[in-house]
Design a protein that fits this description.
The protein is an alpha/beta fold and about 375 residues long. The chain has 14 helices and 11 strands. It is found in: Periplasm.
């Protein structure tokens, strides 16, 4: 651009103004790189639940590809939604659970995979693909699956632990921990009462929230995510709602003291996935990381570390035998029959679910 502050002559501004035109006659310049192209460097930012991917796996990924993975921990699917809906473009791979995949895809917050770049997709178990939340697995690939249930201290609980009802018993006031997860909290009530766990009925959902509010008064539960398992192991709580793999890690240390059960009414069968946000600026790197994590040997190492069931059909044979044989991680068929995945409830029901955050587990 000519220097418009120069007034020394009429010729200099004219010549300067003509330079771009003269240059364009001789050659064609490449267009300026887009922000995405500039950012597609040797980095990838991963937002995922805690204790899912071991550091040595990510170190091997960097060794093979030169791409460094920066890991951020997410506490809930709702937190993930808030980050992406808020316009964040800092993440390149995220880990939404089943029902959240559909919500993110509907809001165009995650993008379709380029399947040609996922050479290891064929390693996945077909029985864990094509689920209702993403029937063609266009937006997600499964990473782990598991169940939600109740962990308990055998020495502190005097009643049989076989029903969600025990989490609402005032007898254990101050000794109950609940997941800081609106869907799981409400589902525990719906299961207890024999209701459809994916009910969209406003009356049923509002009634369940009122039960949780009563529980807060009568039972004074602790609301947490990762700290639940440590509190149970330390004896700070006697009963805790949580995820099977995390409980497994504590139960194997103190099998005479701690236990885990999927209640008789049934529970959540969840699938946590990998997806690429629409706003990612490192899409090529993101595909490389997702494909790497679907490699059989890598999937097995991640499963050994996280203590959750792997959806990797080929990699399963490489998982430690003590994990494969443990019914906490790989439940028998009769337990799985009682479990169901969460579905997206739709706009109106999701608004009702917001009451859990504002009225129940808010500080």
């Amino acid at each position: 651009m000519p220097n418009r502050r120069s007034r020394l002559s009429l010729i200099v501004p004219l010549l300067v103004a003509l330079v771009p035109l003269i240059g364009s006659i001789g050659c064609k310049k490449d267009p300026a790189p887009t922000p995405a192209a500039q950012a597609d460097d040797k980095k990838v930012n991963l937002l995922i639940f805690s204790e899912y991917i071991p550091d040595d796996v990510l170190a091997d990924f960097k060794k093979e590809t030169g791409i460094e993975v920066a890991v951020a921990v997410m506490e809930s699917n709702e937190q993930l939604l808030a980050k992406l809906a808020g316009g964040s473009n800092e993440f390149d791979v995220v880990s939404p659970s089943d029902y959240m995949v559909r919500r993110l895809a509907a809001q165009k917050l995650i993008q379709k995979f380029d399947r040609a770049k996922l050479s290891n997709f064929s390693n996945l178990d077909p029985t864990l693909l094509g689920k209702g939340f993403d029937t063609a697995n266009e937006f997600s690939v499964p990473l782990f699956w598991g169940t939600t249930g109740i962990g308990y201290n055998k020495k502190k609980v005097t009643d049989p632990v076989n029903s969600w009802a025990i989490l609402f018993d005032p007898k254990y006031k101050g000794k109950v921990a609940m997941l800081n997860d609106p869907r799981e909290m409400v589902t525990s009530v719906l299961r207890r009462d024999g209701k459809e766990p994916n009910s969209k009925d406003p009356a049923i959902l509002n009634a369940a929230i009122e039960v949780l509010k009563l529980q807060k008064k009568a039972v004074a539960p602790i609301y947490d995510v990762d700290g639940i398992y440590e509190k149970l192991a330390a004896g700070d709580v006697a009963l805790a709602q949580g995820f099977n793999g995390q409980f497994y890690k504590e139960v194997v240390k103190k099998p005479e003291e701690l236990g885990f059960i999927v209640p008789k009414e049934g529970a959540t069968l969840w699938i946590d996935n990998l997806s690429i946000p629409t706003a990612s600026t490192r899409v090529a790197n993101a595909h490389k990381l997702v494909d790497f994590l679907m490699r059989p040997d890598v999937a097995a190492r991640a499963a050994d570390f996280a203590a959750y069931a792997t959806p990797n059909r080929v990699g399963r044979s490489k998982v430690k035998k003590e994990l494969l044989d443990n019914p906490i991680i790989y439940p028998p068929a009769d337990v799985l029959k009682k479990c169901a995945s969460m579905e997206d409830l739709g706009t109106e029901a999701n608004k009702i679910m917001d009451r859990v955050t504002t009225e129940v587990n808010a500080d």
